[in-house]
């Protein structure tokens, strides 16, 4: 299946950017807005189409978020046109040398006040040129419209550099800023809306709160489309889907799982284990049984979970990769109390988590 890494190259194909291909066969235009709705899974949108009539009326196709199916990884794929094994943002949290990095806050895991942007320079952690840099170098006016407090963040610098950043605070200024970014010929705007994912985490996908937020998102997309100049394209995609949490296995209260584990990273649906013993793989595989796929790093790489894997990502993946199945999660009630209580969750390899939509509307 084609992946999220092909979305931006396909949209840039009509903007005279060298070295990009329209592998998704998206409409070609010289003015493009890409709206990424965090957490808008393909299966969720299809199941609740009546709450999103405009989005559901758009032309579209299904694609894959890539693994892990999590925001930091997918945004890096949007920005670079690469999957996790190449761009190296291999999850929500992962080891970079001796640090465990939270890629969303660019801080030390367990201490959000410990800013790691100096110690782990984002342009070094993710050194590949971004598609936005390449487009800007080719003369395209490239903008990113996203929450104001994301400006200058580690993830923005790692994945979105090369764009002119416009910080916004809500639906209204997002819609107006996205369309204003298309005033000149050969313009591309990446717009990001986070709240559907946040609502899903705390109330669950498909909850009344989530459905109302989906209606708001649908209205946002419709209003952006209505303000586009003639011939411009609005594309809508997501970074992952979401499931409702089922069984919780608590690493912090299960001593058997500690043995031989030097560092545990990742998130509840996908865990990276950096180990001191080869027995860890067998212990976790036996303990979790059919609740997870537990593979060595070598086997996960060989299976193609991360796409092509370069040396940048290899050590970050961990010696053992745990990808949860069905709805089970591995939580850390003491080290990650908020994360451990979330109702909606994502990150692993199930279709509801991996499957995302790519939708498009051409302004008449």
UniProtKB/TrEMBL annotation:
GO terms for molecular function: hydrolase activity. It holds the Pfam family Phosphodiest. It comes from the Bacteria. Gene3D superfamilies: Alkaline Phosphatase, subunit A (3.40.720.10). Coiled coil: none annotated. InterPro entries: Alkaline_phosphatase_core_sf (IPR017850), Phosphodiest/P_Trfase (IPR002591). This is Alkaline phosphatase family protein.
């Amino acid at each position: 299946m084609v992946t999220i890494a092909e979305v931006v190259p396909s949209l840039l194909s009509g903007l005279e950017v060298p070295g990009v291909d329209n592998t998704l066969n998206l409409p070609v235009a010289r003015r493009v807005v890409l709206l990424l709705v965090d957490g808008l899974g393909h299966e969720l949108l299809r199941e609740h189409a009546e709450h999103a009539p405009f989005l559901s009326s758009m032309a579209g196709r299904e694609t894959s978020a890539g693994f892990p199916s999590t925001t930091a990884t997918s945004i890096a794929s949007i920005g670079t046109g690469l999957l996790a094994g190449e761009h190296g943002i291999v999850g929500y949290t992962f080891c970079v040398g001796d640090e465990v990095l939270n890629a969303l806050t660019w801080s030390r895991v367990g201490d959000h006040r410990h800013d790691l942007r100096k110690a782990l320079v984002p342009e070094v952690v993710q050194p590949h040129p971004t598609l936005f840099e390449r487009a800007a170098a080719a003369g395209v006016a490239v903008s990113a419209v996203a929450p104001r407090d994301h400006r200058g963040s580690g993830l923005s610098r790692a994945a979105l550099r090369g764009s002119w950043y416009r910080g916004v605070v809500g639906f209204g200024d997002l819609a107006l800023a996205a369309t204003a970014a298309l005033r000149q010929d050969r313009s591309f705007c990446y717009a990001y809306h986070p709240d559907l994912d946040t609502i899903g985490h705390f109330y669950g996908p498909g909850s009344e709160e989530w459905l109302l937020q989906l209606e708001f998102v649908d209205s946002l997309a419709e209003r952006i489309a209505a303000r586009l100049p003639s011939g411009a394209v609005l594309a809508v995609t997501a970074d992952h889907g979401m499931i409702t949490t089922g069984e919780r296995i608590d690493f912090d209260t299960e001593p058997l799982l500690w043995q031989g584990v030097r560092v545990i990273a990742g998130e509840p649906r996908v865990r990276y284990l950096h180990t001191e013993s080869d027995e860890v793989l067998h212990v976790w595989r036996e303990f979790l049984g059919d609740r997870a796929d537990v593979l060595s790093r070598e086997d996960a790489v060989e299976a193609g979970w991360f796409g092509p894997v370069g040396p940048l990502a290899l050590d970050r993946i961990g010696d053992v990769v745990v990808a949860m199945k069905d709805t089970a999660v591995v939580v850390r009630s003491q080290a990650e109390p908020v994360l451990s209580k979330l109702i909606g969750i994502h990150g692993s390899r199930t279709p509801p988590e991996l499957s995302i939509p790519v939708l498009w509307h051409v302004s008449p």
